[in-house]
Amino acid sequence: MYVTCLDLEGVLVPEIWIAFAKASGIPELTRTTRDEPDYDKLMKWRLGILKEHGLGLGEIQDTIATIDPMPGAKEFLDELRSLTQVIIISDTFQEFAKPLMKKLGWPTIFCNSLEVAKNGEITGFKMRCEQSKLTTVKALQSIGYETIASGDSYNDLGMITASKAGFLFKSPDSIKEAHPELPAFETYEELLDAIKKAMD
C-alpha cells in the first residue's frame, strides 16, 4: 500500500511568505526554507520582523485569500488522489492553510499551528513534532505504508530520501546541484508519471 507525501508551498501553491513580502513591502520576508535550512530559526526571525512592523495574522490571511494554487495543481492532485492516498505534509500553519485547502478540494494536510494573541499578533508557533516531514513518513512506514515523497526545499530532503521513491519538484538549482542523485522535475505531468512508475 502506497501513500504519497507532498510538500505544499512551492509544489502546489506559491510561497505564502513571498506573496506577503510583496504585499507588505518587506523584502526580507522573501526568505524561505529554500534559503534557510533551520525552520525554527527562520520562523523566529519572521516573527521578529512582523512584530517590528506591527503586522499580525489578519494581514497575512488577507494576502493568503488572494493566492491561488499553481496552474494545474488541483488537476494533478485530483488525478493523484484517484490512484493513491495523498497527504500534504507542510511546515506551514493551520491558520494559513485552510483557504488554500478549500481551493485544492480539501486534501488531507498535516501541518503546525500558531500562537496568536487576542489583538492578532503572532506570539509564537507550535510544531506538530520534531522534523515533522521525516517523522511523519517514518510513522506511515511503521504502520505498513510504502511512501513516495516530493518537495522543493531543504526541509523536504528528509522525507524524500527516507521514502521508497522521492523526487525534487520545482527546486532551486542550489538544491538540485547538491543532490544530483534525486530525480528533479518541473511539470506535474513528469511528477505524476514518476509516481506511477514508482508504484508499479
Q: What does this entry look like structurally?
A:
With 200 residues, this protein is an alpha/beta fold. It has a domain at 2-14 and 70-112 and 129-199: 3-Layer(aba) Sandwich (Rossmann fold), CATH 3.40.50.1000. Helices cover 44% and strands 20% of the residues. The chain is built from 9 helices and 7 strands. It has helices spanning 16-24, 39-53, 57-64, 73-83, 94-103, 132-142, 157-162, 173-178, 188-199; strands spanning 2-6, 85-93, 108-116, 122-126, 146-151, 165-169, 184-185. A 7-stranded mixed sheet has the order 4-3-2-1-5-6-7, sandwiched between helices. Helix 5 (94-103) links the parallel strand 2 (85-93) and strand 3 (108-116). It is globular. It starts with a strand and ends with a helix.
Gap between N and C termini: 11 Å
Order of helices and strands: EHHHHEHEEHEHEHEH
CATH fold-level topology of the domain at 2-14 and 70-112 and 129-199: Rossmann fold
Second CATH tier, the architecture of the domain at 2-14 and 70-112 and 129-199: 3-Layer(aba) Sandwich
CATH class division of the domain at 2-14 and 70-112 and 129-199: Alpha Beta
Low-confidence stretches: none
